[in-house]
Amino acid sequence: MVSIVLVSIAIVFVLTYFKKWGWLWREWITTVDHKKIGIMYIIAALAMLFRGGVDALLMRTQLTLPGMEFLDSQHYNEIFTTHGTIMIIFMAMPFLIGLMNYIVPLQIGARDVAFPFLNALSFWSFAFGAMIFNLSFVIGGSPDAGWTSYTPMAGAALNPGPAQNYYLIGLQVAGIGTLATGINFMVTILKMRAPGMNMMRLPIFTWSTFITSFIIVFAFPILTVALALMTIDRIFGSHFFTLTGEGMPMMWANLFWLWGHPEVYIVILPAFGIFSEVISTFARKQLFGYKAMVYSMVVIAGLSFIVWVHHFFTMGAGGGVNSFFSITTMLIAVPTGVKIFNWLGTMYKGRIRFDTPMLWSLAFIPCFVIGGVTGVMLAMAAADYQYHNTYFLVAHFHYVLIAGTVFGCFAGLTFWYPKMFGHKMNEKLGKISFWLFVIGFNVCFFPMYFLGFAGMPRRTYTIEPEWMPLNVTASIGAVLMAIGFAVFVYNIYYSFRYSKRETHGDTWDGRALEWATTTPVPFYNFATVPKVEGPEAYWILKEKGGTTYEKDKVEPIHMPSDSGIPFIMMAFMFVASFGLIWEWMWMAIPGIIGVLVCMVIRSFDYDDGFYVSVKEIKRIEEKAREGEQ
Amino acid sequence: MSAHTDLNTGPLEYRSHEGRMTILGFWIFLGAEVVLFSTLFATYAVLFGKTADAPVPAELFELPMVLIMTFLLLTSSFTCGIAIHHMRRGSLKGLFVWLGITLALGLGFLGFEIYEFVHYAHEGASLPSSAFWSAFFVLTGTHGLHVLLGIGWAVLILIQLRQRGLTPVTSRKVFVVGLYWHFLDVIWIFIFTSVYLIGMVV
Ligand code: HEM
Ligand SMILES: [Cu+2]
User: Which overall architecture, per CATH, does domain B17-48+64-201 show?
Assistant: First the structure.
């Protein structure tokens, strides 16, 4: 808490001292450029990874020795709740959405996303949502009912005060933006592809984004409703999930996981996309089984909606229901297996290079398989009565989430880093952080499977003596991961200072269109949009000696104008949210009115953007391409 | 982003790349709205009959009033269609008149809904009365809120039509709000049958 306040003060001070407020406003806060928005997402996600990681370390410290008195039980509850929520909602998803934002329009040869203004709105709704959630540690108490927030425990009767409201409203505000992102990317991918890029020529990361967007559009409204119902229960006294008034607490579990399970695929499919890109680039081969990859993602997306009950096999659903959901859950292993074999097939006989992005992708495969196999073990309903809510589960979901999503984010960031910032991340530091993190990860979580068998329950704040050795091991692993992360972050700083600047856009000898433009990418992305003649568009372009700057074909480019409305609107939303959290209607209502006024202003805004002149384009391109010849 | 109109045939609202994208995006948004309402319907179904000590729906629901509301909303969907028809013919005046009628009918619907809610509350059935009534008020209330937003939105577009006349942008806006309006009508049909009709007989 003190640290949050100090960091905020420090940021304000630094900005004022260097007179950067105007710059910040003009260049970043009002931007509608998908690339800048992507970078802001990633920075915020890294900050949240840090915050969630500190939570994790605190928990691991408390659990190292029996009878530790580092955190009391209430504090422990608050920390695992915010840790889980932040990691999934405010770290994993934004990180991936950030990468999508930066990369997808480039991969399909577009100038921006379909709705740039909406994109900025999405980002600010996420940012303010995260702020609301983090504020809970400073004022009024943090939510403590787990990231799943089961009722009736999270209801007003058993959990009074504003703490739980932070969870409800923070997620709600961020969720609206996520939904908008889903719509935005669906339209972008359907409507903004370069000429010749039909759906079966899309780079696989773009495909994964497309399917993820589908899941978002069909899953997030469920969360919206569930959160709203619980908010209404808590603030206006309705009886959806209460024990009184014939409410049904169990309905929360159903609604939550109807969204929650698809959510885990929202954070895993884009990571699959990243691994596919990285593996084919560094194995220097076309992706093996492209179509199988696409179809397996489609099947996974479909199945993800009909497995939710596996999260509460033990809550009395009966044999028939449990069997059904047990089988659907296990089915997901099939398309996932297909993907694993495709990755292996891609590497088979490839000339593999072991740069850092590739290392993350290689480490992902065995770790994810461990997570997946234990997932199938959990899917057996009868056996789940044994593992349910033990550390076996904690080990399983960290194996899939960290090996899948976090490795994927690191792989993606190091892979696309040169495109974003014009220099590589340092390879040596990259490898050090990689090995620390991966070894630490296995040391930390593998013992937890055995702790689960030994009966150590999840969400316990203190351990029995016989669980000590494995817990000590796990904590050592956690520290290694923390050091690995610190090296990763240091690497960003180090590379910024010392890495060689890139003079051309194609750092890794890439295959998709994002490598076809210069580095750093001009704000209009491509001077002339290339014609796509097959899958792996850039590879073909390179072989033919084509370019994205055909001097005599340059035409004026139309671009959208920046706007401060998204930021201001979400700032009002922030005020409204804070009012709702404290149940202060005098504050909530003006906030809502502010939001509505912003919408009205936007509706009357007929600013149609501007044109970049041919002369200006030529000037920018000539300057950027100097080094290339 | 290409602002140039890349097609010169077809309805005005489809004649720019932006227009097409917005309309597609709106269809997808409606898909999300379908999920939202489905969730509310499912909740309602699960909580059906859980009235605790409050009155049961059959005691309160009255067919005549619900029929009037249905009539108002269905008619408004029809007049909204006529408004779009006038827009297609390039008649700003026709568009104005019929969209105005649509909004008036929508307001009428809202008036009845508010009356209905107040009336129920007097009879002892309000949001906190029981799980069933919570579900009822949230489901119908969400629909009502959508109608209200739709009216506000359409009014803004009417003003813009006044200022700018029929352009690819304004006609796209009218078309989209029209889609929204029809969608609310469809939702109402589901509310009418699965909430009111079933509530009256069970
Ligand atoms: C960085 C290393 C990490 C460590 C050392 C760590 C450790 C832990 C620990 C000790 C718990 C509490 C278990 C309990 O008391 O039941 C936990 C819970 C959880 N973690 Fe992590 N975690 C890490 C990273 C992550 C990541 C990257 C994610 C997601 C992307 C994640 C998602 C979760 C979730 C969802 C929970 C459950 C929270 C709840 O029970 O409500 N963790 N983690
Ligand atoms: Cu699941």
Answer: Up-down Bundle (1.20)
